[in-house]
Amino acid sequence: GIQVEQSPPDLILQEGANSTLRCNFSDSVNNLQWFHQNPWGQLINLFYIPSGTKQNGRLSATTVATERYSLLYISSSQTTDSGVYFCAVVSGAGSYQLTFGKGTKLSVIP
Amino acid sequence: DVKVTQSSRYLVKRTGEKVFLECVQDMDHENMFWYRQDPGLGLRLIYFSYDVKMKEKGDIPEGYSVSREKKERFSLILESASTNQTSMYLCASRTGVGNTIYFGEGSWLTVV
User: What is the pLDDT of residue B5?
Assistant: First the structure.
């Protein structure tokens, strides 16, 4: 099956700093999502982005499907950005299964 | 907003008990999923359902079964709970294959 690798596995930032999280995948995809898991376990949708670029406030994401990677940018980080960021993909025509990366654990310190 | 509701946030059950985890979505989604999440292993798919009464095994179906009698409800059943099923369980739903998937808040299950 498709492999999804995220980097870095851990990231510590000072409040106000910017960061880039990366997601590499081993095959073509027809669905890619970024999630933020808060400290209480809730997975929150950030972006549905199988290709192209999207922005939502301080967050933006870019997926280059032909090169099989996606990037999540966080600007002016805040302590509430802390948590684990997951990339998840669906590969294969008619496939239902969403395959997750292992996540990037972000800690934003004041 | 899409709402996926899991019936129990925290449960403690004894080994051998039958456990039901319920999930309800309010957006008429066709597809529903059950994942478990464990440290170091990430999220793994247990079962999914692409329509009422339809189900497919995911990566780790052993020890679990599911039921989808109504479109809005997808239940995960542990027939005889074991300690290695202690985990966080996440339910999700979406309209169809190319669409955004939405997760519930999660259910923390401890089997003692």
Answer: 95
